[in-house]
Specification:
single chain, alpha/beta, four-stranded antiparallel beta sheet, seven-stranded mixed beta sheet, 39% helix, 412 residues
């Protein structure tokens, strides 16, 4: 794949930042959007704007078909059996909250254990904290092996002895880039009767995913990290578990019948999607999936491995810098995320100097405060994250920006 040719599909790369062509290295936060995705939104509003599942006129039926077809595309992309497994939500955060509020409220009791890990994003942490507080449950953590910055499997197995009702882990860390073996984690957790949720926000955009092979009960993702629009994401769930759950919201479209005193739910997945849906978001998500498929998830993964290895090798001999997460000899378990710290320089200053060079990176705790502040013992870290439209020249410019940081702060 040629990142230079791919960039031509992304209008934002025509702009300048601080007077220089933009180098975008913050795709772990949100990805840029190709014109095919942008055009799909304009086309919907221009040619067939109508509500779905209601009208029997032509443009309403077209809107319904396009929205529904996008679910079929996503189901195929992640290996789900059918669209019955795919619930559209606003984002990964809402998907996990849906599980914690619906499944969690019905199944977690006082004294039950919920197991997450030290590398979770707040979206896969705070909902479980709230559930544990409501129910009097115990929230346990799989510790990080500080020497390898991978999950400590001994800690995982020790925590399984508590027979956790729920095990919720990220497939790829948004800070360390560590790719967790969620298939193994699911297999072991199932031996203890656990329900398993995988946070796929940082994996689904960047690598092949097969939820049936993983064996998880739930899988959560966001469209905006995988070339799609903001405001739409998805919760995958097995039919068995989704059928057992109560919807969070009541209203139109999620019912099959209503009387003055009773109601019955619509079939899956619609029973979880009350009211008018984010129609243009779903349609544009389908366009984003088409774009990803036109390149191939395996090719995207190989491309990011190459970029990440180049970044790690380029930083290897740079003085006064600390890089977090798996190193270049473990590139097979590292996503396209490189977090780092420069000795004596606050990450916010680093990000500002990068901005002056036309380079967008993220600085902060990355919505993973326990990991950054309690495990890494840092107030904040700088992060570069790569995607299909990046190339080695982008990374070389970032390394040059680090040299500029060191020059300004008079470091070696």
């Amino acid at each position: 794949m040629n990142a230079g040719d791919i960039k031509k599909d992304f209008p934002i790369f025509k702009i300048k930042m601080s007077g220089k062509p933009i180098v975008y290295l913050d795709s772990a936060a949100t990805s840029q959007k190709p014109k095919q995705v942008i055009d799909s939104i304009v086309k919907f509003y221009s040619e067939y704007n109508a509500n779905i599942h209601r009208g029997i006129y032509d443009i309403a039926e077209r809107a319904t078909d396009e929205y529904t077809n996008s679910k079929g595309k996503l189901a195929k992309l992640i290996g789900a059996k059918s669209i019955r497994n795919i619930v559209y939500v606003r984002n990964t955060t809402e998907a996990i909250n849906l599980v914690a509020l619906s499944w969690g409220n019905a199944n977690i009791e006082k004294g039950d254990h919920i197991l997450i890990s030290d590398m979770e994003h707040h979206s896969n942490l705070v909902p479980w904290q709230l559930l544990a507080k409501r129910k009097g449950a115990v929230l346990d953590y799989i510790k990080l092996d500080k020497s390898s910055e991978k999950l400590d499997m001994d800690s995982f197995k020790e925590n399984l002895e508590n027979d956790p009702k729920m095990v919720a882990v990220t497939q790829a860390s948004n800070v360390l880039g560590t790719i967790n073996d969620v298939k193994y984690i699911t297999k072991e957790a199932k031996k203890h009767g656990s329900v398993v949720l995988v946070d796929g926000a940082q994996s689904a955009p960047h690598m092949p995913v097969d939820v049936q092979s993983i064996g998880c009960d739930f899988f959560a993702l966001s469209a905006h990290k995988m070339l799609g629009p903001t405001g739409i994401g998805a919760l995958y769930g097995t039919e068995e578990i989704l059928n057992s759950m109560e919807p969070l919201f009541g209203g139109g479209d999620m019912i099959s019948a209503v009387t003055r005193q009773t109601h019955s739910w619509n079939s899956l997945p619609w029973k979880f999607e009350a009211g008018t849906s984010n129609i243009e978001g779903g349609i544009a998500f389908g366009a984003a999936i088409d774009y990803l498929n036109s390149i191939g998830m395996e090719k995207i993964r190989r491309h990011e491995e190459k970029l990440t290895k180049h970044a790690l090798e380029s930083l290897e001999n740079v003085k006064n810098i600390e890089v977090y997460g798996p190193k270049k000899d473990e590139i097979n378990i590292k996503s396209g995320v490189v977090s780092f710290g420069i000795k004596g320089v606050h990450p916010h200053d680093v990000a500002q100097i990068f901005n002056n060079e036309g380079i967008a990176i993220r600085a902060g705790h990355h919505c993973a405060m326990p990991l950054v502040t309690e495990v890494l013992r840092q107030g904040a870290v700088s992060r570069m994250s790569f995607y299909l439209y990046n190339d080695e020249d982008d990374i070389d410019k970032a390394v040059a920006a680090i040299d500029e940081v060191k020059r300004i702060f008079k470091l070696e």
